[in-house]
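seq as requested:
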Amino acid sequence: SRDIVLVQINPLKREHTPQTPQDIMDRVNELTFNASLLSQMRTIDFINRLLADGRLQEGEKYRSVFLHRIDGGHALEEFPSSTKLSTDSAMIEKLFLLGQESARRWLGKHFEALGQQSTINIRRDYVGSMPQGF
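struct tokens:
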């Protein structure tokens, strides 16, 4: 399949600047994790553009992909970063149900796009303003 569905649990942006040492460390961890994600998104965007422009041949080695995102968004903001390390079954169940509901909502809105087109704009959401030619 040409579809990649990203389940994003770390926000790319926060509305408020972290103030406490713990909040700052949590944000550093989010940014560190997101650095890899952003790099991969830039690569996907780059390859997709080279294929679309005919500068790369689509085949066994390169294929354009349709990218989608299920975003935890505001629902996950209520949970502290330490939640990622929690083994509490009630917490895991709550997160599982939250994820299920997010997936159902996403499928209800975007199911028809699967296999047809991306439902996110990689350049706008992940790449930002990259110079032309990249």
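The mean pLDDT is 86.
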